[in-house]
């Protein structure tokens, strides 16, 4: 974990502190425990998606199938629970995770075997999943409900900390350990730097790509399951608003979009920063237009700050 | 002729696919190949076609532009204010709309070149800003575009859809001469190898700035033409166009790693994508299954484009 702490990855945390201070200046309730724990709970949804995206981006690829993997997992899990059959509702969460892993492997096949650029292939997979969902649900909001387990995962809390936040952090720590302490993690980064050299060193690069996309798919699916638990239902396009903030969270966290460089520690900060920024902008009741403008500008400023710092160091 | 076809293999394949699809579409349409059917088809195709041209200029220099849809939304909203009134006012307004697009592109380019940030992230952030400005201009869809002008641009001339005439003029009047200029060659040089281009004395910064400005300019043209088709301003149109423009350039044989492809390919890709969607509509496939079929055809088309891998003689050839 320590190795992934760079100055770039600390920046979003500094941003979070600044946001809280600036926000509390206008709205004292920003400092209340209730508000902050609610932010942690909501940040977990974006954070889980960003965790998966970090792994794919470290590999030098990108996963644009996040929105409909998320929605698909949500539809699948709520439909299984809604069937009323106790066995089916017990396997709702594992089934959704298996679905995410399966789509991840489909993504990996296109990228590693067919050598299609991940940006296009995952986009095509996303539109096929959209088609499947429409075919399955008839274009209406799918029937079904969340199980008590899913609701607890999304909305419960232990000792005042939201369970969703704890799940996210536990998963991040586990994956960060996996990335820094196993050969897989080293291969992942080295493919991000130079796939050819990694292949020539005797690494089975396709299996690393498969694993990375499968993990990312499972993260998206877990995010979908928990969002379904949060809303107590699945709905069409529930994942669409998450795609771009997910990429933004990863990049703000100091992970290079070119691959190889970065880590999960920064991503946690990035997800917290973006959630808090969105929330404070809406608490301030700024109209939608200005919220978009401020959001884009702040992301640009943070990125410019990263390159300025590197320019000064070089 | 054969040499030409061999050296432009990607465009030729895209063209043949497009003709086959169009034939299937006109064959299955209940009203057949009438001017009316062709006009509607060509209008839809040209909107995405111009967006794909915008994407092409970013992709050919090994970049990507995620703000294409946002630039379209912004210019569409600007157009809904400026394209009504006196003839002179409308002419100036059209220039202003396209200039707005070019300015957006220039901004992208300056942040990419001088801020040294990856284009994908820059345009992700600026897209949010552009949509924000579009929302400031038009919180709700509205405004108007001069109907005579809109009709002139979106109907037909002597039975030929105006949109097709615009497409041909863009290719013959702009692209073919442009490709032979220093800037046109520079785009390919920069996309193929930035280092080699730099060492040959090409001003890589200028070329990249120009590429993104051209991307913005074509985004502005796409927004302008969209305004002619819909005659209102709507800030919410961004989402679909950006991702479709990427799919379109890839279908048209433009490589995302830069330096390969042409504007003709990008246009053909966009036309293919739109024709598939229109074909679905009359194909008799149950309407609920259509999005799935569209996705599968898109995936299959892209996978076939990736079949080059199978011809690689050496496993190392696939890493590039």
What is the element layout, followed by pairings?
The complex is a heterodimer of chains A (314) and B (320).
Chain A: H1 7-26, H2 33-58, H3 66-82, H4 86-90, H5 92-113, H6 118-137, H7 148-155, E1 157-158, E2 161-162, H8 163-181, H9 183-193, H10 195-200, H11 205-231, H12 243-252, H13 264-283, H14 288-313
Antiparallel strand pairs in A: 1-2
Helix pairs in contact in A: 1-13, 2-8, 2-11, 2-12, 2-13, 3-5, 3-6, 3-11, 5-6, 5-11, 7-11, 8-9, 9-11, 12-13
Chain B: H1 2-7, H2 9-28, H3 35-60, H4 68-82, H5 87-115, H6 119-137, H7 147-154, E1 156-157, E2 160-161, H8 162-179, H9 182-192, H10 194-199, H11 204-230, H12 238-251, H13 263-282, H14 290-305
Antiparallel strand pairs in B: 1-2
Helix pairs in contact in B: 2-13, 3-8, 3-11, 3-12, 3-13, 4-5, 4-6, 4-11, 4-12, 5-6, 5-11, 7-11, 9-11, 12-13, 13-14
Oligomer: heterodimer
Number of domains of chain A: 1
Poorly predicted spans of chain B: none
Q: CATH topology of chain A, what is it called?
A: ABC transporter involved in vitamin B12 uptake, BtuC
What spatial form of chain B do the alpha-carbon principal axes imply? globular
The helix count of chain A comes to: 14
- CATH architecture heading of chain A: Orthogonal Bundle
Portion of residues in helices of chain B? over 70%
Strand content range of chain B: under 5%
| Total of helices of chain B | 14
In CATH, what is the class of chain A? Mainly Alpha
Structural class of chain A: mainly alpha
Q: Can you characterise this structure?
A:
The complex is a heterodimer of chains A (about 325) and B (about 325). Chain A has about 325 residues and is mainly alpha-helical. Chain A contains 14 helices and two strands. A two-stranded antiparallel sheet of chain A has the order 1-2. Chain B is mainly α. Helices cover about 75% and strands about 0% of the residues of chain B. Chain B has 14 helices and two strands. Chain B has helices at about 1-5, 10-30, 35-60, 70-80, 85-115, 120-135, 145-155, 160-180, 180-190, 195-200, 205-230, 240-250, 265-280, 290-305, and strands at about 155, 160. Chain B has a two-stranded antiparallel ribbon. The radius of gyration of chain B is 20 Å and the shape is globular. In chain B, about 50% of the residues are buried. The mean pLDDT of chain B is about 85. At the A-B interface, helix 6, helix 10, helix 12 and helix 14 of A face helix 6, helix 12 and helix 14 of B.
């Amino acid at each position: 974990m320590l190795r992934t702490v760079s100055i770039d990855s600390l920046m979003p945390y500094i941003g979070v502190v600044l946001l809280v201070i600036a926000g509390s200046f206008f709205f004292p309730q920003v400092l209340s425990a209730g508000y902050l724990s609610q932010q942690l709970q909501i940040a977990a949804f974006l954070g889980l998606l960003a965790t998966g995206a970090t792994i794919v981006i470290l590999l030098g690829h990108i996963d644009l199938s996040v929105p409909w993997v998320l929605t698909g997992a949500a539809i699948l899990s709520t439909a299984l629970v809604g069937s009323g059959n106790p066995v089916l509702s017990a396997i709702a969460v594992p089934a959704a995770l298996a679905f995410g892993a399966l789509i991840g492997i489909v993504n990996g096949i296109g990228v590693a075997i067919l050598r299609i650029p991940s940006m296009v292939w995952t986009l095509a997979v996303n539109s096929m999943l959209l088609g499947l969902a429409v075919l399955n649900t008839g274009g209406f909001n799918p029937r079904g409900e969340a199980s008590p387990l899913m609701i607890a995962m999304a909305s419960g809390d232990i000792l005042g900390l939201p369970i969703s936040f704890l799940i996210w952090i536990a998963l991040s720590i586990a994956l960060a350990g996996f990335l820094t302490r196993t050969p897989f993690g080293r291969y992942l980064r080295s493919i991000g730097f130079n796939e050819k050299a990694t292949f020539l060193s005797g690494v089975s690069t396709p299996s690393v790509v498969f694993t990375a996309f499968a993990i990312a798919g499972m993260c998206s699916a877990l995010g979908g399951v928990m969002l379904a638990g949060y809303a107590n239902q699945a709905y069409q396009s529930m994942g669409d608003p998450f795609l771009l903030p997910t990429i933004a969270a990863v990049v703000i966290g100091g992970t290079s979009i070119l691959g190889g460089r970065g880590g999960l520690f920064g991503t946690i900060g990035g997800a917290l920063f973006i959630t808090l920024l969105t929330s404070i902008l809406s608490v301030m009741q700024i109209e939608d237009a200005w919220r978009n403008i401020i959001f884009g500008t702040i992301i640009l400023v943070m990125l410019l700050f990263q390159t300025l710092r590197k320019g000064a160091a070089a | 002729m054969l040499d030409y076809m061999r050296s432009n293999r990607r465009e030729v394949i895209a063209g043949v696919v497009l003709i086959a699809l169009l034939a299937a579409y006109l064959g299955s349409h209940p009203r057949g190949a009438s001017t009316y059917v062709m006009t509607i088809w060509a209008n839809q195709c040209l909107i995405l076609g111009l967006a794909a041209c915008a994407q092409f200029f970013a992709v050919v220099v090994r970049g990507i532009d995620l703000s294409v849809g946002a630039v379209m939304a912004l210019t569409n909203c600007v157009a809904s204010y400026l394209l009504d009134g006196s003839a002179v006012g409308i002419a100036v307004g059209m220039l202003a709309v396209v200039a707005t697009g070019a300015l957006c592109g220039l901004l992208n380019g300056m942040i990419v070149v001088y801020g040294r940030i990856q284009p994908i992230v820059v345009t992700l952030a600026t897209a949010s800003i552009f949509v924000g400005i579009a929302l400031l201009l038009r919180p709700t869809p509205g405004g108007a575009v001069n109907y005579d002008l809109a009709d002139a641009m979106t109907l037909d001339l002597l039975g030929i859809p105006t949109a097709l005439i615009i497409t041909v003029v863009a290719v013959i009047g702009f692209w073919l001469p442009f490709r032979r200029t220093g800037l046109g060659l520079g785009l390919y040089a920069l996309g193929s190898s930035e280092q080699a281009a730099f060492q040959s004395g090409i001003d890589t910064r200028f070329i990249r700035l120009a590429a993104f400005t051209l991307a913005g300019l074509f985004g502005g043209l796409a927004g302008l033409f969209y305004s002619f088709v819909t005659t209102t301003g709507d800030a919410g149109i961004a989402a679909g166009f950006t991702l479709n423009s990427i799919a379109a350039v890839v279908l048209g044989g433009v490589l995302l790693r830069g330096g390969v492809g042409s504007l003709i390919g990008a246009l053909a890709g966009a036309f293919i994508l739109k024709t598939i969607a229109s074909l679905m509509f009359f194909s008799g496939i149950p309407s609920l299954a259509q999005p799935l079929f569209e996705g599968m055809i898109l995936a299959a088309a892209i996978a076939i484009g990736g079949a080059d891998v199978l011809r690689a003689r050496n496993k190392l050839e696939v890493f590039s």
